[in-house]
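Hey, I'm writing a tutorial for new members on how sequence and structure tokens pair up, and I'd like a real worked example in the thread rather than a made-up one. If someone can provide the structure for the chain below, I'll link this post from the tutorial.
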Amino acid sequence: MTMRNRNRGCGSIPRRTFLSDCGMGFTGLALGALLAEDGIVRGSESPTWTPPDGRAHHTPRTKSVIWIFLSGGYSHLETFDPKPALNTYAGKTFDDTPLENPLHSPLHKKRFRSVAAEEINVRDVYPTIYPMQVGWKKHGESGIEITDWWPYLAQQADDLCFVRNMWTTDNDHAAENQIHTGRHRLDETQPSIGSWAHYGLGTLNENLPQFVVLGGPTRTDTRQSIDSYYLGPQYAGVPLELAAETPLPFGSRHTGQSAKQQRNEFAAINRLNELTAVEYPEDQELRARIRAYELAFRMQAAVPEAIDLSQETAATAEMYGLGDEATKLAGRRLLAARRLVERGVRFVQVFPSTYGKWDSHRKLKELHGKMCAGVDRPVAALIADLKQRGLFEDVTVVFCTEFGRTPGLELRGGGKDGRDHHPNGFTVWFAGAGIKRGVVHGETDELGYHALGEGHYVTDMHATVLHLLGLDNRRLEIPGRKRLEIDHGRPIHDILT
């Protein structure tokens, strides 16, 4: 027997693959049997489960989603859920008003989960009522109340749908990950909402990523908000830079390398990867790497064009506030988001302001006034732009933050002009395809403390978005990855057309 033949196993199967498959196969069978016997793993409860094939489960109402996230926790009270009672009882404690003390409500402990021990946690229990720091008016034919810090967006009131009874459980900034994954930081991490959308539906444009992130993730510890975890790395969000010279970090050709040379290089790398993939067909990361190389090459031409804002008219640039330093950052990101969904990107996650900027523990009036001015005009421009281009029936916009702010004055460190984190009740809004216009859904109590009724946990937002995309959240279940009931959420049908 020649050396060549001795190095091969059965037939034409390489010996390494034969031994690996046999060894790991028998070991895997034994391990699987033991785990199944102990109830740790089991096969799919549904024998008809099949991986998504890019087809919707039901007729979709939208093609793409622009998910706008304001990091830090904007105050629902000084934005989209004004409460006159805060001014009426300013300076009084909850017990000094004729209203029910919200700290005595059973909802307080039901929806609250602090990492700190309860006896030392002081967040969201400040008893001294802090008045509103801005005025408000009713706007549009719908008469929706919006504060005076949103003059541009207020003009769009009849196109928006506010959900005022949101709640979450984390009272710290890990809630930024929670609103995107649905899980508290003490629990197992789940894939982000953008990853589920990509996993369920696949691509609308082979030359662009289907889950794009603009302005994020905001920090290394918020990577979860765009990650795909057990779905596979190919479904994670792809951050894009709006600097024209480097829109794809690490994705540019080397100086002096021609397009033909690079094409040949990618072809050689892919061939080597494909040969390895034959030996290890279950290696998801390898297959994701192959797809990433292929997509990266195609994106080098498609991405710069997609986010080239110089192609826009002067009127559009003016509408988004690109010439104003206060609105330029948000304006560029939101305009790029419109261009991306226009070209078939499925899910665009936009951070229009930097990490934690809305976190107004102090100087709320000064900080919120400045931050609202930075995003109000660009966000209103996005709504108007989608409408004028006929995209309002194809794109759904979600506007959210990780939690609200306390009705009580934050007293830590001698505080006198700010509000602390408040997960018990806050406001988000939707607009566009499949969404009712000029509607307010749900409410908080008179002080803006608790989301009344059952309210909506953050995964209800996920379920609503996936439903609009034509996906049944529960049919995305993966064998061996049992999700909790709360992970699935429920579509907010009352806000859907």
